[in-house]
Amino acid sequence: xxxxxxxxxxxxxxxxxxxxxxxxxxxxxxxxxxxxxxxxxxxxxxxxxxxxxxxxxxxxxxxxxxxxxxxxxxxxxxxxxxxxxxxxxxxxxxxxxxxxxxxxxxxxxxxxxxxxxxxxxxxxxxxxxxxxxxxxxxxxxxxxxxxxxxxxxxxxxxxxxxxxxxxxxxxxxxxxxxxxxxxxxxxxxxxxxxxxxxxxxxxxxxxxxxxxxxxxxxxxxxxxxxxxxxxxxxxxxxxxxxxxxxxxxxxxxxxxxxxxxxxxxxxxxxxxxxxxxxxxxxxxxxxxxxxxxxxxxxxxxxxxxxxxxxxxxxxxxxxxxxxxxxxxxxxxxxxxxxxxxxxxxxxxxxxx
Length: 352
Prior knowledge:
It contains 15 helices and 16 strands. The protein has helices at 15-26, 38-48, 60-63, 80-94, 105-112, 115-121, 134-146, 165-174, 215-223, 236-244, 246-249, 255-268, 274-279, 305-321, 332-336; strands at 7-10, 32-35, 52-54, 72-75, 97-100, 124-126, 152-159, 179-183, 186-190, 196-201, 204-210, 227-233, 281-289, 295-303, 328-329, 348-351. The strands form three sheets. It has a seven-stranded parallel beta sheet, with helices on both faces. Strands 10-11-12-7-13-14-16 form a seven-stranded mixed beta sheet. Helix 5 (105-112) packs parallel to helix 9 (215-223). The longest helix has 17 residues, at 305-321. Mean pLDDT is 89; it is low at 168-172.
Protein backbone atom coordinates (compact mmCIF):
# COMPACT_ATOMS: atom_id res chain seq x y z
CA UNK A 1 0.00 0.00 0.00
CA UNK A 2 1.05 3.61 -0.48
CA UNK A 3 2.97 5.10 2.44
CA UNK A 4 1.36 8.52 1.94
CA UNK A 5 -1.47 9.58 4.25
CA UNK A 6 -4.04 10.02 1.49
CA UNK A 7 -6.81 7.90 2.99
CA UNK A 8 -8.72 8.10 6.23
CA UNK A 9 -9.85 5.28 8.48
CA UNK A 10 -12.85 6.43 10.52
CA UNK A 11 -13.67 4.39 13.61
CA UNK A 12 -10.02 3.35 13.87
CA UNK A 13 -10.30 2.85 17.63
CA UNK A 14 -13.03 0.20 17.33
CA UNK A 15 -12.29 -3.51 17.35
CA UNK A 16 -12.30 -3.96 13.57
CA UNK A 17 -10.79 -0.53 12.96
CA UNK A 18 -7.77 -1.39 15.10
CA UNK A 19 -7.23 -4.63 13.18
CA UNK A 20 -7.37 -2.78 9.85
CA UNK A 21 -5.10 0.01 11.06
CA UNK A 22 -2.47 -2.41 12.34
CA UNK A 23 -2.48 -4.43 9.11
CA UNK A 24 -2.34 -1.29 6.95
CA UNK A 25 0.72 -0.10 8.86
CA UNK A 26 2.30 -3.55 8.58
CA UNK A 27 1.88 -3.23 4.80
CA UNK A 28 3.69 0.10 4.83
CA UNK A 29 0.72 2.50 4.81
CA UNK A 30 0.18 5.49 7.10
CA UNK A 31 -3.58 6.06 7.11
CA UNK A 32 -5.14 9.01 8.87
CA UNK A 33 -6.74 7.48 11.94
CA UNK A 34 -9.99 9.21 12.82
CA UNK A 35 -12.91 9.01 15.22
CA UNK A 36 -14.94 11.14 17.56
CA UNK A 37 -12.88 10.54 20.74
CA UNK A 38 -9.47 12.19 21.06
CA UNK A 39 -8.79 10.06 24.16
CA UNK A 40 -9.00 6.92 22.04
CA UNK A 41 -7.74 8.03 18.63
CA UNK A 42 -4.64 10.02 19.54
CA UNK A 43 -2.88 7.33 21.63
CA UNK A 44 -3.56 4.77 18.89
CA UNK A 45 -2.15 7.14 16.26
CA UNK A 46 1.01 7.67 18.32
CA UNK A 47 1.46 3.92 18.78
CA UNK A 48 1.14 3.25 15.05
CA UNK A 49 2.97 6.45 14.01
CA UNK A 50 0.03 7.68 11.95
CA UNK A 51 -1.63 11.10 11.68
CA UNK A 52 -4.88 11.58 13.59
CA UNK A 53 -8.05 13.60 13.11
CA UNK A 54 -10.88 13.90 15.61
CA UNK A 55 -14.41 14.88 14.59
CA UNK A 56 -18.01 13.70 15.09
CA UNK A 57 -20.45 12.70 12.35
CA UNK A 58 -23.48 14.66 13.50
CA UNK A 59 -23.32 17.30 10.72
CA UNK A 60 -22.14 16.47 7.16
CA UNK A 61 -21.37 20.12 6.45
CA UNK A 62 -18.82 20.12 9.28
CA UNK A 63 -17.17 16.86 8.21
CA UNK A 64 -15.94 18.17 4.86
CA UNK A 65 -12.99 20.24 6.19
CA UNK A 66 -11.66 17.14 7.97
CA UNK A 67 -11.40 15.38 4.60
CA UNK A 68 -8.90 17.86 3.19
CA UNK A 69 -6.13 16.04 1.32
CA UNK A 70 -7.99 12.72 1.56
CA UNK A 71 -8.66 10.61 -1.53
CA UNK A 72 -10.71 7.87 0.14
CA UNK A 73 -12.47 7.11 3.42
CA UNK A 74 -12.78 3.60 4.84
CA UNK A 75 -15.66 3.96 7.29
CA UNK A 76 -15.67 1.41 10.14
CA UNK A 77 -17.81 3.08 12.82
CA UNK A 78 -21.18 1.38 13.24
CA UNK A 79 -24.03 1.07 13.62
CA UNK A 80 -24.03 2.36 10.06
CA UNK A 81 -27.73 3.14 10.21
CA UNK A 82 -26.63 6.14 12.31
CA UNK A 83 -23.21 6.95 10.86
CA UNK A 84 -23.13 6.09 7.15
CA UNK A 85 -25.34 8.86 5.76
CA UNK A 86 -23.39 11.86 7.13
CA UNK A 87 -20.02 10.42 6.15
CA UNK A 88 -21.29 9.43 2.70
CA UNK A 89 -22.76 12.91 2.16
CA UNK A 90 -19.51 14.56 3.20
CA UNK A 91 -17.54 12.35 0.80
CA UNK A 92 -19.87 13.16 -2.09
CA UNK A 93 -19.52 16.86 -1.33
CA UNK A 94 -15.73 16.69 -1.06
CA UNK A 95 -15.14 14.38 -4.03
CA UNK A 96 -13.72 11.63 -1.79
CA UNK A 97 -14.20 7.92 -2.45
CA UNK A 98 -16.33 6.16 0.19
CA UNK A 99 -16.05 2.57 1.42
CA UNK A 100 -17.62 1.01 4.51
CA UNK A 101 -18.09 -2.29 6.32
CA UNK A 102 -21.85 -2.23 6.65
CA UNK A 103 -24.04 -5.27 6.30
CA UNK A 104 -27.23 -3.26 6.84
CA UNK A 105 -29.70 -3.59 3.99
CA UNK A 106 -31.12 -0.07 4.25
CA UNK A 107 -27.66 1.49 4.31
CA UNK A 108 -26.63 -0.40 1.17
CA UNK A 109 -29.83 0.61 -0.61
CA UNK A 110 -29.32 4.24 0.41
CA UNK A 111 -25.86 4.15 -1.17
CA UNK A 112 -27.27 2.59 -4.35
CA UNK A 113 -29.77 5.46 -4.59
CA UNK A 114 -26.85 7.91 -4.79
CA UNK A 115 -25.29 6.29 -7.87
CA UNK A 116 -25.92 9.16 -10.29
CA UNK A 117 -24.65 11.76 -7.81
CA UNK A 118 -21.52 9.70 -7.24
CA UNK A 119 -20.85 9.36 -10.96
CA UNK A 120 -21.23 13.12 -11.40
CA UNK A 121 -18.87 13.75 -8.48
CA UNK A 122 -16.32 11.18 -9.66
CA UNK A 123 -16.75 9.29 -6.37
CA UNK A 124 -16.77 5.52 -5.82
CA UNK A 125 -19.49 4.41 -3.39
CA UNK A 126 -18.59 0.93 -2.14
CA UNK A 127 -20.50 -0.17 0.94
CA UNK A 128 -20.17 -3.66 2.43
CA UNK A 129 -16.51 -4.39 1.63
CA UNK A 130 -16.02 -6.67 4.65
CA UNK A 131 -17.09 -10.18 5.59
CA UNK A 132 -20.59 -9.00 4.84
CA UNK A 133 -20.78 -9.14 1.84
CA UNK A 134 -17.57 -9.78 -0.10
CA UNK A 135 -17.48 -13.62 -0.02
CA UNK A 136 -21.22 -14.17 -0.45
CA UNK A 137 -21.51 -11.48 -3.13
CA UNK A 138 -18.73 -13.09 -5.13
CA UNK A 139 -20.31 -16.51 -4.67
CA UNK A 140 -23.66 -15.16 -5.88
CA UNK A 141 -21.99 -13.68 -8.97
CA UNK A 142 -20.18 -16.92 -9.82
CA UNK A 143 -23.40 -18.91 -9.44
CA UNK A 144 -25.29 -16.49 -11.67
CA UNK A 145 -22.60 -16.84 -14.34
CA UNK A 146 -23.10 -20.62 -14.32
CA UNK A 147 -26.88 -20.37 -14.78
CA UNK A 148 -27.89 -17.35 -16.87
CA UNK A 149 -31.54 -16.48 -16.42
CA UNK A 150 -31.71 -17.77 -12.82
CA UNK A 151 -34.79 -16.53 -10.99
CA UNK A 152 -34.01 -17.57 -7.43
CA UNK A 153 -30.91 -17.26 -5.27
CA UNK A 154 -30.40 -18.88 -1.88
CA UNK A 155 -27.29 -18.12 0.17
CA UNK A 156 -26.26 -19.43 3.58
CA UNK A 157 -23.31 -18.97 5.88
CA UNK A 158 -21.83 -20.32 9.09
CA UNK A 159 -18.88 -18.97 11.07
CA UNK A 160 -16.96 -19.59 14.25
CA UNK A 161 -15.98 -17.02 16.86
CA UNK A 162 -17.65 -14.29 18.87
CA UNK A 163 -18.77 -10.77 17.97
CA UNK A 164 -17.02 -7.48 18.51
CA UNK A 165 -18.89 -4.72 20.40
CA UNK A 166 -19.56 -2.87 17.15
CA UNK A 167 -21.02 -5.92 15.43
CA UNK A 168 -23.16 -6.64 18.47
CA UNK A 169 -24.53 -3.07 18.47
CA UNK A 170 -25.43 -3.33 14.79
CA UNK A 171 -27.15 -6.68 15.41
CA UNK A 172 -29.05 -5.17 18.32
CA UNK A 173 -30.34 -2.38 16.08
CA UNK A 174 -31.62 -4.93 13.57
CA UNK A 175 -33.47 -7.25 15.97
CA UNK A 176 -36.75 -5.28 16.19
CA UNK A 177 -36.99 -5.03 12.39
CA UNK A 178 -37.35 -8.80 11.87
CA UNK A 179 -36.37 -10.58 8.67
CA UNK A 180 -35.92 -9.36 5.10
CA UNK A 181 -35.98 -11.18 1.77
CA UNK A 182 -36.28 -10.08 -1.84
CA UNK A 183 -39.36 -11.19 -3.76
CA UNK A 184 -39.91 -10.19 -7.37
CA UNK A 185 -37.05 -7.72 -7.10
CA UNK A 186 -38.53 -5.95 -4.06
CA UNK A 187 -37.22 -6.15 -0.51
CA UNK A 188 -39.98 -7.46 1.75
CA UNK A 189 -40.27 -7.77 5.52
CA UNK A 190 -40.88 -11.25 6.90
CA UNK A 191 -40.95 -12.68 10.43
CA UNK A 192 -37.69 -13.58 12.16
CA UNK A 193 -36.68 -17.14 11.20
CA UNK A 194 -39.31 -17.04 8.44
CA UNK A 195 -37.93 -20.14 6.68
CA UNK A 196 -35.52 -22.92 7.60
CA UNK A 197 -33.28 -25.02 5.41
CA UNK A 198 -30.83 -27.89 5.88
CA UNK A 199 -27.69 -26.62 4.16
CA UNK A 200 -24.87 -28.85 2.80
CA UNK A 201 -21.96 -26.81 4.15
CA UNK A 202 -18.42 -28.08 3.46
CA UNK A 203 -18.10 -29.40 7.02
CA UNK A 204 -21.42 -31.23 6.88
CA UNK A 205 -25.14 -30.37 6.82
CA UNK A 206 -26.40 -27.70 9.22
CA UNK A 207 -29.83 -26.21 9.83
CA UNK A 208 -30.16 -22.55 9.01
CA UNK A 209 -32.83 -19.84 9.19
CA UNK A 210 -33.52 -16.79 7.05
CA UNK A 211 -31.68 -13.66 8.18
CA UNK A 212 -31.66 -10.00 7.04
CA UNK A 213 -28.10 -10.25 5.70
CA UNK A 214 -26.69 -7.62 3.38
CA UNK A 215 -26.93 -9.84 0.30
CA UNK A 216 -30.68 -9.27 0.26
CA UNK A 217 -29.64 -5.84 -1.04
CA UNK A 218 -26.35 -6.44 -2.83
CA UNK A 219 -27.00 -9.74 -4.62
CA UNK A 220 -29.81 -8.19 -6.67
CA UNK A 221 -27.56 -5.33 -7.80
CA UNK A 222 -24.84 -7.88 -8.63
CA UNK A 223 -26.90 -10.56 -10.39
CA UNK A 224 -30.34 -9.15 -11.22
CA UNK A 225 -31.91 -12.29 -9.71
CA UNK A 226 -35.33 -11.20 -8.38
CA UNK A 227 -35.95 -13.69 -5.54
CA UNK A 228 -33.24 -13.82 -2.85
CA UNK A 229 -33.11 -15.46 0.56
CA UNK A 230 -30.13 -15.53 2.93
CA UNK A 231 -29.77 -18.07 5.74
CA UNK A 232 -27.55 -18.21 8.82
CA UNK A 233 -26.70 -21.53 10.48
CA UNK A 234 -28.41 -21.94 13.85
CA UNK A 235 -29.07 -25.16 15.83
CA UNK A 236 -32.57 -26.40 15.13
CA UNK A 237 -33.58 -26.19 18.79
CA UNK A 238 -32.57 -22.53 18.88
CA UNK A 239 -34.61 -21.84 15.77
CA UNK A 240 -37.70 -23.20 17.53
CA UNK A 241 -36.94 -21.01 20.56
CA UNK A 242 -36.46 -17.92 18.37
CA UNK A 243 -39.79 -18.51 16.68
CA UNK A 244 -41.54 -18.81 20.04
CA UNK A 245 -39.83 -15.62 21.23
CA UNK A 246 -40.88 -13.51 18.22
CA UNK A 247 -43.39 -11.42 20.25
CA UNK A 248 -40.59 -10.48 22.68
CA UNK A 249 -38.00 -9.48 20.07
CA UNK A 250 -39.80 -6.23 19.39
CA UNK A 251 -38.96 -5.14 22.94
CA UNK A 252 -35.43 -4.37 21.72
CA UNK A 253 -36.96 -1.46 19.86
CA UNK A 254 -37.85 0.23 23.15
CA UNK A 255 -35.25 2.70 24.40
CA UNK A 256 -34.87 1.34 27.98
CA UNK A 257 -34.36 -2.23 26.76
CA UNK A 258 -31.97 -1.10 24.07
CA UNK A 259 -29.93 0.99 26.52
CA UNK A 260 -29.65 -1.97 28.89
CA UNK A 261 -28.42 -4.20 26.07
CA UNK A 262 -25.94 -1.53 24.93
CA UNK A 263 -24.62 -1.23 28.49
CA UNK A 264 -24.08 -4.99 28.61
CA UNK A 265 -22.23 -4.89 25.27
CA UNK A 266 -19.94 -2.06 26.42
CA UNK A 267 -19.02 -3.75 29.70
CA UNK A 268 -18.91 -7.45 28.87
CA UNK A 269 -18.05 -7.81 25.16
CA UNK A 270 -14.52 -7.18 23.93
CA UNK A 271 -14.33 -9.20 20.72
CA UNK A 272 -12.37 -12.34 19.83
CA UNK A 273 -8.86 -12.83 21.21
CA UNK A 274 -5.87 -12.95 18.81
CA UNK A 275 -5.77 -16.73 19.16
CA UNK A 276 -9.49 -16.98 18.37
CA UNK A 277 -8.99 -14.79 15.30
CA UNK A 278 -6.27 -17.09 13.98
CA UNK A 279 -8.50 -20.13 14.44
CA UNK A 280 -11.74 -18.62 13.11
CA UNK A 281 -13.29 -19.98 9.92
CA UNK A 282 -16.37 -19.42 7.80
CA UNK A 283 -18.25 -21.33 5.14
CA UNK A 284 -20.85 -20.36 2.56
CA UNK A 285 -23.30 -22.20 0.38
CA UNK A 286 -25.29 -20.92 -2.56
CA UNK A 287 -27.85 -22.18 -5.04
CA UNK A 288 -29.44 -20.55 -8.07
CA UNK A 289 -32.54 -21.92 -9.78
CA UNK A 290 -34.13 -20.93 -13.08
CA UNK A 291 -37.73 -21.02 -14.22
CA UNK A 292 -37.38 -24.56 -15.58
CA UNK A 293 -36.17 -25.90 -12.23
CA UNK A 294 -32.53 -26.24 -13.25
CA UNK A 295 -30.15 -25.33 -10.47
CA UNK A 296 -26.45 -24.87 -9.71
CA UNK A 297 -24.90 -25.14 -6.22
CA UNK A 298 -21.50 -24.32 -4.76
CA UNK A 299 -19.78 -23.96 -1.40
CA UNK A 300 -17.03 -21.59 -0.32
CA UNK A 301 -14.61 -21.80 2.60
CA UNK A 302 -12.85 -18.70 3.93
CA UNK A 303 -11.10 -17.44 7.05
CA UNK A 304 -13.35 -16.10 9.81
CA UNK A 305 -15.23 -12.84 9.72
CA UNK A 306 -12.70 -10.40 11.17
CA UNK A 307 -9.54 -11.62 9.39
CA UNK A 308 -11.48 -11.73 6.13
CA UNK A 309 -12.86 -8.23 6.70
CA UNK A 310 -9.34 -6.84 7.13
CA UNK A 311 -8.15 -8.53 3.94
CA UNK A 312 -11.21 -7.58 1.88
CA UNK A 313 -11.43 -3.98 3.07
CA UNK A 314 -7.77 -3.21 2.41
CA UNK A 315 -7.86 -5.03 -0.92
CA UNK A 316 -10.90 -3.00 -1.94
CA UNK A 317 -9.28 0.23 -0.86
CA UNK A 318 -6.08 -0.54 -2.78
CA UNK A 319 -8.06 -1.00 -6.00
CA UNK A 320 -9.98 2.24 -5.48
CA UNK A 321 -6.81 4.21 -4.82
CA UNK A 322 -5.22 2.63 -7.91
CA UNK A 323 -8.05 4.07 -10.01
CA UNK A 324 -9.29 0.69 -11.20
CA UNK A 325 -12.90 1.19 -10.05
CA UNK A 326 -15.38 3.34 -11.98
CA UNK A 327 -17.19 6.13 -10.08
CA UNK A 328 -20.66 5.40 -8.77
CA UNK A 329 -22.24 2.77 -6.53
CA UNK A 330 -21.05 -0.81 -6.90
CA UNK A 331 -21.16 -4.07 -5.01
CA UNK A 332 -17.88 -5.90 -4.34
CA UNK A 333 -18.35 -8.44 -7.14
CA UNK A 334 -19.38 -5.70 -9.58
CA UNK A 335 -16.40 -3.53 -8.67
CA UNK A 336 -13.69 -6.18 -8.46
CA UNK A 337 -15.07 -9.17 -10.34
CA UNK A 338 -16.76 -12.37 -9.11
CA UNK A 339 -13.44 -14.10 -8.41
CA UNK A 340 -12.15 -11.38 -6.09
CA UNK A 341 -12.66 -13.64 -3.06
CA UNK A 342 -10.58 -16.40 -4.70
CA UNK A 343 -7.52 -14.16 -4.52
CA UNK A 344 -7.37 -14.98 -0.81
CA UNK A 345 -4.95 -17.90 -0.44
CA UNK A 346 -7.27 -19.73 2.01
CA UNK A 347 -10.47 -19.35 -0.02
CA UNK A 348 -11.73 -22.62 -1.45
CA UNK A 349 -14.63 -22.86 -3.92
CA UNK A 350 -16.32 -26.18 -4.67
CA UNK A 351 -19.04 -26.78 -7.23
CA UNK A 352 -21.59 -29.35 -6.10
